[in-house]
Amino acid sequence: MPAIKGKAVPCRQRVSDELLKKSIAELGVEGTAKRYGYIPRSVKARRRDIEEREGIVIKPPERVNRTGPIVRGGHVEQLNLHPASVSIGIQEGHVIIGSDSHYWPGVVSTAHNAFLEFCREFKPKVVIKNGDEADFPSISRHAPIAWETRPTVADEIDNMKAMLGEIEKVSKGARHIWPLGNHDSRFETRLATLVPEYAKVHGVHLKDNFPKWEPCWLVLINDCLAVKHRFKSGINAPRLNTLWSGRSMVTGHLHCQSIQPLSDYNGTRWGVDAGCIADPYGPQFYNYTEMNPLNWRSGFCLLTFVKGRMLMPELVWISGPGRVQFRGKEWTI
Q1: In this structure, which CATH number among 3.90.76.10, 3.60.21.10, 3.40.47.10, 3.40.630.10 belongs to the domain 85-332?
Q2: Average pLDDT of 212-226?
Q3: Rounded to two decimals, what is the model's pTM?
């Protein structure tokens, strides 16, 4: 049995470094292990050893049912559907971040209308819709509840085009960015699972329907802020997000809308849950939540940058149908 870093591994034949590299590039780790009788863990260990010794990256064949960045051998590989991150530098101006719209045909939330008004008023440099713009219940892995009515994928796409189109019109000149959410990813996950042969065909990727929005997993602003759909979970997620990322972080996913500061010798960072653009008691959630009381809040987040420094984040809270609270005042939308 050949030794890998001093450990014996079971195999049926010895394989040279060159042959192993070629096999991983053609078949991947699992295929190589099956071909030569290795266990997959041993193939991974030997690949890392070769990469470290030769200063290379041994890439397996591209898999179309995965998106986002993969860290392998100390290198970040970019897979085929979404860029890993978007980096932005802002000296002066505003960034508006709305998350979890769960846009539903025929339903327009107060938060969506307020988002339009704030884009008109503050003229942001960047507009970020921070994931779960779609709901896509018809292609969810979860079974329908009773005989609930679910919109078709086509209806949801058409409705999102209309909603995001309104935002585009009132924020001309802004950069529009869309970090992927777990509900958004249902679109391509479904296709990649059922018809992987269609990978890279234009029109089968969610981003093909929204060319004015930059898709990504992560937005990095200056050297102080990260924006993504989700990271840690639980009621203390905003604080844990900034603790573990080392930056201020704005997320969605939990629908809770809150700000949790964290101060240490490096200063103060902000963990922000932007809340949800959707109405917490909207039709998207009737059956899913069984109409239980929800610790969710509708609204979004406004960030201000002065001389490259981010000021304390501000939340725009939907205090009732057609009502918005911001900076100690309430407005009717």
Answers
A1: 3.60.21.10
A2: 93
A3: 0.74
